[in-house]
Structure formats: C-alpha cells, structure tokens
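Table 4 source record.
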Amino acid sequence: MATETTPRLMTKAEYAKHRGVSKPYISKLAKNGILVMRGGKVDVAATDTVLDDRPVDDVNVPPAAPVAPPSRPAGESLGQTGASFGQARTVEMVFRAKLRRLEYETRQGKLIEAELVRKTIADAVRGVRDGILGLPDRLATVLAAESEAKKVHVTLKTELARQLEALANAIAGI
C-alpha cells in the first residue's frame, strides 16, 4: 500500500501553505463555505477538488464502515447502504461550489447562454443572407445603366462590404 504525500486533513494554516496562499484567504473561503471541513480541519482532497474544479470522481472519500458485522442475524434489516453522510456532504459541497463558480463567471460575462448565442448568430447570418440575395434586385438597374466597369466594381464592392459590416456588428453585439 502506497503512502500519500499529502495528509488527508490539515489545519487552515497548513492548508494555506499547501496552496501557496495566505491564511486570511483560506479563512475567508472557510467562512463562505467553500472549504470542505472535517471537525475543524480542512479535507485536503475534497477542498482541492472544489478549488481546482476537478470532476467529483477525483475526490478520495474514505471507505464507508462495514455495513453488517458477521454476527448479525440473517433476517435483520440493515437499512440503507451506500454513501456515508460525510461522503454525501462532500459531494454536495463540491456541487455547490461549482454552481457558485458558474454563477460568478456568468455575472462577470465570461459565460453566456449557448442558446442565446445560437439564436443571435442565426439571426445575423439570416440577415446577411437576405441582404446578399437582395443585391441583384437592388443593383440590377443601377449596374445596367453603368457603362464603366470601374463604377460597377465600386458599387458591388460597396454593397458587399455593407452586408459584411452588418454581420460583423451583429456578432460583436453578442
């Protein structure tokens, strides 16, 4: 059996040193409920998971106590088996911390709703498509009246640039 390089539980001061941050910062995290605490000490694996935003499966939770001693009669009910209260609490705390991080990043503008982006881009592309498909109707008489190739070229280029600028503005507004 291999020995762990970091202890399972640490004081706040030890954990601050472990993370390379100040003790007041760790105390603030504890006060806000971000740290996973066990009897006044920091659960290193669970808290690292919360702070590093690793998947919940990475949390090394201690195995549950044996469900039934061998001397228990066969017909006796054992109740529910599965995760211990501590394990369930750790999973819940990791989940809540991830939700808080998502909410924070959304408020900062780092995250936006994917469906809103899809709709905005679809609307912008549809507008450009309609504008480009409308060019022949708008420019046919103007271009037919022009005898100079340079004027035809400038007119076409101006209208295409206007449509592409509209697309760029729509995307920039997302």
